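Box 3.1. Reading complex inputs
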Amino acid sequence: MEKLIEQLYAASQQISGFIYPNEVELQWSILIVIYPYITGLVAGAFILASLVKVFNVKALSPTYRLALLTALAFLIVAPMPLQFHLGHMERSYEIFLTPHLKSAMAVFGFVYMWYLMVVLLLEIWFDYRKDLVEMANREKGLKKLLYMALSLFSRDISPKAIAFDKKAAKIITIIGIPSAFLLHGYVGFIFGSIKANPWWSSVLIPVVFLFSAIVSGIALVLILYMVITMFRGKKLDMLCLDRLADFLLYAVIVDFSLEMLDFIHRLYQSEDSIHIISELIKTKLFISLIIVQILLGIIVPVGMIVLVKFFKYQDELRRLVYFVAALLIQMGIFGTRWNVVIGGQLFSKSFRGLTAYKMELLGMEGLFVALGFLVLPFIILYLVTRVFSPWEEGQEQSIS
Amino acid sequence: MKEKTKNNKLNRREVLKKLGKYLPSAGLLWIASSKLALPAEENGKKHNYGMGVYIKRCIGCGRCANACKEENNVPRDPFFYRTWIERYAVNMDGEVSVQSPNGGIDGFSPMEATRTLLKSFFVPKLCNHCDNPPCVQVCPVGATFKSPEGVILVDEKYCIGCRYCIQACPYGARYFHPEKKVADKCTFCYHRITKGLRPACVEVCPTNARVFGDLHTLSSPLLRFKRMNDIHVLKPDLNTEPKVYYANMDGVVR
């Protein structure tokens, strides 16, 4: 407690104007920034996978399984920062046992379970069942048992059974698209429905969250595809990469248009909170919003992608540009989450002053724990890909 | 012997007579007891507590905020308050400055007398015990709730500490208890009012700037306060229906 009080004294030095006395403590820290960021990556990666399965975008098929497994790895981590943030982690099961159904937050547990159990795990299972059965037949000992258990002891790999698997996976993907929309749109609603906070309270927030999720998911899979393929010494499928960059570009443009609509709407309506919000943007959010989110996260990468597409540069340069653009976009989306979660708490609800956030380095809500949660999904992804290969055999060429 | 037995036996006429006496009286007793019992049972339900604040009477002494911390074991550090006092200073050009050093507990330092100062006044703040409380709406487990007496409470043994309610309160009336790790806020001194006492802040106010009472009782001082004054509530546009009423409040107060 003493450490907290010390931090609060330090924070109170950085306050400008008047804030309500209870507002010195910033309630939602970096961990709550990580939560919508990771959830967004899940939804985005899944939507990308559905482009292959449901919308039949054949060019993207090299990334289909990778996208699904990425979604799974990140989904496993998604609720962890929330758990760590709770004052009483040991009581969190109450959300499942006695949910208060009028609360936007109460339903998250159910939406999450639905998405994990009904959508992702089931789809991955149907998608990999044939491989698992084959591996169980090939391996011996413990490994055989593991694969048999993972295939839920199913043995049938007749053409009829495989046709059924394919059909089931497709149906689940069709259910999965609205579920992914629900998952992340719902996270947006947690913020958008808070009428006390004019920075959050907007009907557009869930939609903006959704499109930024799609953007971040595609960018992440693009980065992963390039990095993993490089490490595997295989050749990148340039057609796939071009299509990924196309979809990334479309999603960024829609996302940016929605954000601009929200911005212009606020500016034009000019409600009583507009003064403090303008001050917030000009001072505390200038770097994270104007520079990181808009300039480096949207305008520069969009410009880069448009340029290489328009002038049809050679593969080498296109690859480099896509990679850098995807990294920038990823950073920009993290900026978006930061600006929503932290930005929404940097001004007083009296609209008369700005508060401050000083991130800890160590400690439960510190930078290192947050970085841990950002790295963990990649470790999980690595482990998952040891069992479930994201690449279909005979599909790729090695670099000769 | 035989005659005695005979006397002890009741004949039909006597039975009917007695029934005629006992049944109505039993019925009356039943009705009376149920009628008498009702108010006791419904006592809670019939109350709907609220508070009135005479802005012009508040002298910014901070005794209310201090008494609240004492009565409710609120941490003494200057970041946690169940109630606090704000001082507003309005300049001739319409510029407003607000202060609340240590929630006003130590009083306020004298203001510089400038020619541009139009007016200055104090506004005591606390949980508004809204009739349509956004904090109750968002609690994921129902740990914060409206009591039968219309008081918004937090069950500290049930709260999971997600802080969503603190975000949802438009008035900054909630804080995160640094030791209990749960949300905390004004309870109108629930432990006192359920014993017929007044909240600590009301009790200690030297100018009677705070009026506590029941909105369902015609003779309540709160209803008299509402009748006799022009009433305003904080942020009415948010439709939270606050039950802390301010008399003659200036429009600059948020």
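In summary: The radius of gyration of chain B is 27 Å.
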